[in-house]
Design brief:
Largest sheet: 7 strands, mixed
Low-confidence stretches: none
Radius of gyration: 14 Å
Distance between the termini: 32 Å
Strand content: 35-45%
Helix content: 25-40%
Shape: globular
Structural class: alpha+beta
Mean pLDDT: 93
Oligomer: single chain
Number of helices: 3
């Protein structure tokens, strides 16, 4: 659970800190499966590219989350989140949603699904 609890803070810090980015990457398994608004990709290299894309498109970003809870009857955890940010264009935004995650036997995040309330949030991710 420690890796899940560190995820959002490290994500936000990674925008300006290479050390935080390396720590963030270390939370995940090499074969991570991640799903953003229904679009699935695999592997740590694709995860790194996604994070870099977020930071290219946003000048600043800050996440808040309620806390990870086990999803009854599954091996998954989920948490509601909210994010506010400033796009590279200068416009500001807010977004809410939930993340669903699984941990492997080593405690690394092996699955992460981002379910934003705004279904258009990751349109650029589809490419």
């Amino acid at each position: 659970m420690e890796n899940l609890n560190r995820y959002f803070d490290l994500f936000d810090q990674s925008r300006t800190s290479e050390q935080a980015f390396e720590e963030l990457v270390g939370l995940f398994s090499e074969d991570i499966v991640f799903v953003l608004n229904g679009h699935e990709k695999q592997g740590i290299e694709n995860w790194k590219l996604f994070v870099k894309m977020v930071f290219k498109e946003n000048a600043d970003i800050k996440h808040m989350f309620e806390g990870w809870k086990a999803v009854e009857g599954t091996d998954k955890f989920e948490t509601p989140w909210a994010v506010c940010g400033k796009r590279a264009s200068g416009s500001v935004f807010t977004q809410t949603g939930k993340d669903i995650a699984k941990l492997n036997e080593n405690g690394k995040i092996s699955y992460l699904e981002n379910v934003p309330d705004d279904t258009n949030m990751f349109d650029t991710y589809k490419n």
